[in-house]
Specification:
Elements lengths: L1 H13 L8 H6 L18 H15 L12 H25 L9 H10 L11 E7 L10 E4 L1 H4 E6 L4 E9 L13 E4 L10 E9 L1 E9 L7 E4 L10 E4 L5 E6 L12 E7 L3 E6 L13 E8 L13 E8 L3 E9 L12 H14 L6 H9 L2 E2 L2 E12 L5 E10 L5 E2 L3 H11 L8 E6 L1 E13 L7 H15 L13 H8 L5 E6 L12 E14 L1
Parallel strand pairs: 10-11, 18-20, 21-23
Antiparallel strand pairs: 1-6, 1-15, 2-5, 2-14, 3-4, 4-6, 7-13, 8-12, 9-10, 9-13, 11-12, 14-15, 16-17, 17-18, 18-19, 21-22
C-alpha cells in the first residue's frame, strides 16, 4: 500500500498537477529541488514514451521506495494504464490542433468548414459525356410522329471493363437551344430527327453518366437563409436545379456565394458540400438573394455519380433498348456511344483544396496577375470537365492590354492526363469573362504531356530476400506517388535526387538506381512529365 501511495504521488508530480486536492497530500508528494527531474516534456506522444517517462521519474525520485518494475506488478499495470490514457489524450489534442488550420487539416468535412470561412468551397465530381446514336430495326415502319423512350429505358447500366466499376448512363436529346432535356421523365424524339434511309437512326443524342434524383414536397417556411438538405451523393457538380410554385413558377439558380447575389429579389441559392459530397442548399434573406415565399412548393432535381471511371471507350455502350413508335408500337432499338466518354473527373481532393484554396481567396474573385489566372484556372470545374493542370503566361499586347496564354490539361483518369475537350476549353474561356480585366485577351492552348518509361533497380538487404515481392510493391506505390497528378507541374523536371529520396522512404530499400536514365530530365515550360510504364528488378546486398 505504501508503494502505491508513493506511485500515485509520483504520477501527480510528473503530470504537473497542482490544483484541487488537500495541501497535506501535496506535501507528501513534494520532492527536494535537487532531486526533481524535468517534470513535463511536451514532445512526448506515444504510449511507450509516456511509460518510459513515468518509470524514469519513479527511478529518479523514489529509487529505494519504489523499485519493482516487473510487468506483473500492480503498480506497473496502473502505470501503463495512465500511459495509455496520456497517449490517447495527446493524440486527440494533436488532432484538434491540426484540424484547426487549412495547412494541416486531414478530415474532409473539417476542411470544408474551414474553407467556408473564407468563402471557398471544394469542387464536386463531374460526369462523363459521350455522343449517342439510336438505330431502329431495319423492318421498322415509318416513324409516324415521334419515337418515345420511357423514363426507365433511358437509364443504361454497364460495367467499366478496365476496373469492373458499375456505371449508369442516361440518354438525353439536345434541344434547339443547345441545352439537354435533363429532367424530362420520358424522352420524345421527333420524326424530323431521324434519317430517311434504312435502318433509320438519330445521332443528336447524348449519354451522361450519373443517376437522376428528385426531392419534392418541400415547403418554404419564410425563414431567413432557409436550407434544404440533399441526403444523397456524391452530387455531380452543376447538376442541381430548384424550381418553385412562386409567381406561377420560378427557377432558382446556383451561385458560388450569396454575397454575390444581385439584390434581394434574385432567385438564387448557395450550395455547401457535406458528408462525402452530399449537399445543403441555402437560400437568401431578402437582402442577399430572394427570401423564399412561405408555403411555396419546391422541387429539387440533381444527379448522382461522376468521376473519371465514366470516361469509357467508344462503343462501350452497344445494347438494345425498348422504344415506342408514336408512343404506341413497341420496338427494340440499338443504342451505341459513337465517341469516347470525356469530362468525368473525381471530386476535389483534400490535398488539392489545401493547395489552391488560400490562393483562390487571395484572388478576391478577379484575375489580374499571373498567379490569379493560375489559381482560378486550376480551380475550374465545368459541366464538360475540370482542369487537372493549368499554367498561365502573360505577355504584353500594347500599352494597356495583356495576352494571357493559358495552357491546360484535363484528367483521363485519376492518374493520367489528356488534352482538354473543346467544350471544356470553351467553358473555361466563358468562366474567365467574369474575372478578367476588360482589356485582357485569353488564348487557351493544350498543355503537352511528356511520357516516360523507367527501368529501375532496388537494392535490399539479403535478410529481406523472402520479402522481395512485397518490397517491390512498396517501391511501385512510392513511384506512383511521386508521379501523381497533384505532385507534377508544368515545367517541373524529373530530379533523380528527389526520386531517389522518394524511393528511400521505403525502409527496406538500401539504394535505388534508374537504369535507363542517367541525368535529370528537363522539359519545356508548357510540358508536364507523366509516368507511362516502369519496371523494377531487385538485387541483394
Amino acid at each position: 500500500m505504501a508503494d502505491l501511495d508513493k506511485f500515485f504521488r509520483g504520477l501527480y508530480n510528473v503530470s504537473g498537477f497542482d490544483g484541487t486536492i488537500e495541501s497535506d497530500f501535496l506535501k507528501l508528494g513534494q520532492v527536494p529541488d535537487d532531486r526533481k527531474p524535468n517534470l513535463i516534456d511536451y514532445d512526448l506522444r506515444g504510449f511507450n514514451d509516456f511509460r518510459v517517462a513515468l518509470q524514469n521519474y519513479l527511478k529518479a525520485v523514489y529509487p529505494l521506495d519504489y523499485n519493482n518494475f516487473a510487468s506483473s506488478d500492480l503498480g506497473q499495470m496502473l502505470l501503463e494504464m495512465f500511459a495509455y490514457m496520456a497517449s490517447v489524450l495527446t493524440l486527440r489534442t494533436d488532432m484538434t490542433a491540426n484540424e484547426m488550420y487549412i495547412d494541416t487539416v486531414k478530415n474532409e468535412d473539417n476542411l470544408k468548414r474551414l474553407l467556408e470561412l473564407i468563402g471557398v468551397s471544394m469542387k464536386g465530381p463531374t460526369a462523363s459525356k459521350a455522343t449517342g446514336k439510336l438505330t431502329l430495326p431495319t423492318e421498322t415502319p415509318q416513324v409516324n410522329d415521334h419515337i418515345l423512350i420511357k423514363e426507365a429505358d433511358r437509364r443504361i447500366s454497364i460495367t467499366n471493363t478496365r476496373n469492373n466499376t458499375p456505371l449508369t448512363y442516361t440518354v438525353y436529346r439536345q434541344e434547339a437551344n443547345g441545352l439537354l432535356n435533363l429532367f424530362d421523365k420520358d424522352l420524345q424524339i421527333p420524326k424530323s430527327d431521324f434519317s430517311n434511309t434504312a435502318p433509320s437512326s438519330v445521332s443528336n443524342l447524348f449519354l451522361l453518366e450519373g443517376s437522376l434524383g428528385t426531392q419534392a414536397g418541400l415547403f418554404a417556411d419564410g425563414a431567413n437563409r432557409q436550407t434544404i438538405s440533399i441526403n444523397d451523393g456524391p452530387i455531380i457538380e452543376g447538376s442541381i436545379g430548384v424550381s418553385s410554385t412562386e409567381n406561377g413558377g420560378t427557377q432558382y439558380n446556383e451561385i458560388s456565394n450569396l454575397f454575390a447575389a444581385s439584390g434581394g429579389t434574385a432567385p438564387v441559392f448557395q450550395k455547401k458540400y457535406v458528408n462525402g459530397f452530399q449537399a445543403i442548399l441555402e437560400f437568401g434573406d431578402g437582402v442577399l438573394g430572394r427570401l423564399p415565399t412561405p408555403q411555396a412548393d419546391y422541387v429539387v432535381t440533381y444527379r448522382v455519380g461522376g468521376g473519371a471511371n465514366g470516361n469509357i471507350i467508344r462503343s462501350a455502350i452497344n445494347q438494345d433498348i425498348t422504344v415506342y413508335n408514336n408512343s404506341i408500337t413497341k420496338l427494340t432499338a440499338t443504342l451505341e456511344n459513337t465517341t469516347k466518354g470525356s469530362g468525368g473527373t473525381s471530386a476535389e481532393t483534400v490535398d488539392h483544396a489545401k493547395r489552391y484554396a488560400p490562393y483562390f481567396f487571395r484572388t478576391q474573385y478577379r484575375a489580374v496577375t499571373g498567379e490569379d489566372y493560375n489559381t482560378l484556372a486550376n480551380s475550374f470545374v465545368g459541366s464538360a470537365g475540370q482542369t487537372a493542370k493549368a499554367m498561365a503566361a502573360l505577355r504584353k499586347n500594347g500599352a494597356a492590354a495583356n495576352v494571357i496564354d493559358l495552357y491546360v490539361l484535363s484528367k483521363a483518369s485519376d492518374t493520367q492526363l489528356e488534352r482538354a475537350s473543346v467544350a471544356m476549353k470553351k467553358e473555361l474561356l466563358d468562366y474567365f469573362q467574369d474575372y478578367k480585366m476588360l482589356t485582357d485577351d485569353i488564348v487557351i492552348s493544350d498543355g503537352v504531356v511528356r511520357t516516360l518509361d523507367l527501368v529501375c533497380t532496388v537494392f535490399i538487404d539479403r535478410s529481406n530476400k523472402r520479402a522481395a515481392d512485397n518490397i517491390k510493391q512498396k517501391a511501385a506505390l512510392a513511384m506512383v506517388d511521386y508521379f501523381s497528378v497533384d505532385n507534377m507541374a508544368f515545367g517541373k523536371k524529373l530530379s533523380l535526387a528527389d526520386l531517389q529520396n522518394q524511393m528511400l522512404t521505403v525502409p527496406e530499400i538500401r539504394f535505388f538506381r534508374l537504369d535507363n536514365i542517367t541525368d535529370d530530365v528537363f522539359v519545356n515550360f508548357n510540358e508536364i512529365i507523366q509516368l507511362n510504364n516502369f519496371e523494377f528488378s531487385v538485387e541483394l546486398v
